[in-house]
Amino acid sequence: MSPSLETLLAQVREHRGIAHKRDIQQVADALAGSWPHPFANGDDSAVIAEGEGYLLLAMEGFINDFVAIDPWFAGWCGVMVNVSDIAAMGGRPLAVVNALWSADQPHAREVLAGMRAASQAYQVPVVGGHTNLHSNQPQLAVAIAGRAGRLLDSFAVQAGQELLVAINLAGNWHPPGLNWDAATQADPAGLRAAIELLPALAESGVLVAAKDISQAGLLGTLVMLLESAQCGATLDLVAIPKPDHCDWRDWLCAFPSFGFLLVCESAQREVVIKRFADCGISAAKVGIFHPEKKLMVERQHESACFWDLHHEPLTGMRR
Predict the structure, then answer these.
(1) I want to staple 182 with a disulfide (CB 3.0 to 4.6 A). Which of 11, 57, 168, 277 is the partner?
(2) Residue-level pLDDT at 37
(3) Domains in the chain: ranges and CATH
(4) What is the largest CA-CA distance in the chain?
(5) Which H or E element spans position 146?
(6) Residue 189 pLDDT > 70, yes or no?
(7) Is the dihedral of CA 213, 219, 220, 226 positive or negative?
């Protein structure tokens, strides 16, 4: 028997990926107003105006245990997640740099082999970084630069717009964590074509915003988007694309390799869904945005509040 909707949402709220996002509140408080900037912090990439477009900068650091246990996949993810962050802003990646610490060379070679494989698959060069092979523990951080002609901006989301989810279901669990691997065995040309959809749809004005589904899971990532937009949403749980053999708790907490929240006007919905379907990506309308700053989740005849931003921030990032 499946748990009630309220029980399911309570379990998802305890996911450690969401707990880690709360740490951002300390950064938001510490750096608030430290430097005047025309673009708000808190989206998937930092934004710097450059000529008629934008320079995008993003960075990911990885949990030490993950790097120690699965060094090749950690290296692959170092490139993949950064590429996704640039795409979520409507950009195309230029290059990545890394900072790698390791206690031994064989472990470091595995991390670098994973980075090399992803670099070749996504056609994004690794152009530099920092290395320490005499560390007392493995650590990895990877940064990326990209460019966008037209931004996809979480801060631009408004009530009445529609929420879509696009996820590549053609994958498998990559244990031990809740990582859905739809990338390492995929056709590289297909990976690049799917990522290219985001900047292409941005430049054509079809999408308003996008957000890469992170380790906070689908609902945690949506709360972050709502925090930026300062609005709320009602989400239909059963409309979310999901593999048949995955239970809802795991799927809502999963990092899906290729998974994006998408925002568009209702008139553009079918265009977006078709473009992703043409690339083998499952996409569907799952909700709508509204003025009240709550994330409401519905499942058939049940309804429950997952997060109330009136009373509880997540990252603390806002304009």
Answers:
(1) 168
(2) 64
(3) 5-27+152-308 (3.90.650.10), 44-148 (3.30.1330.10)
(4) 57
(5) strand 139-148
(6) yes
(7) positive
